[in-house]
């Protein structure tokens, strides 16, 4: 079976026939369309790295840390750059109520033992004020989880800048 070739247009064609279309780098048994494996002695160099000619763009370290603009992220997810912006965008259209949410989850302890169960523990949501077409007002909602309860809104900043604690209609 042909494994690779360069076509007439100088394109690199990879055809791993024996792996059901899966490609493995560092492995002969890929588990997904693209599997990249490294030994435990990989060190601190990026496990996967996408770079421009002068700087890192996206890196995944062997320990699972992900860096955008950072070749050696020290946190699980790190964005580094001059005035970095992370955008969460809801692309729903029409008169529906679009919202974007940053959700926090936490492990539940039962009698001092980690139950292995994750629960929604808090969130920050930005939601359209109403479903009226042309109304571009948005509110920011802050939610937390109470003991043995569920995630509930605790504070709201309205589209006009009013802050309400314990109310969904601050004035």
Which structural traits does this protein have?
four-stranded mixed β-sheet; 44% strand; 0% helix; 171 residues; mainly beta
Mean pLDDT: 79
Radius of gyration: 23 Å
Order of H and E elements: EEEEEEEEEEEEE
The N- and C-terminal alpha carbons lie at a distance of: 72 Å
The poorly predicted ranges are none
Multimeric status of the protein: single chain
Number of helix segments? 0
Can you put this structure into words, describing what you see?
Helices cover 0% and strands 44% of the residues. The radius of gyration is 23 Å and the shape is extended. The relative contact order is 0.07. It is built from no helices and 13 strands.
Q: What is this structure, in a nutshell?
A:
With 171 residues, the chain is mostly beta strands. 0% of the residues lie in helices and 44% in strands. The model has no long low-confidence stretch (mean pLDDT 79).
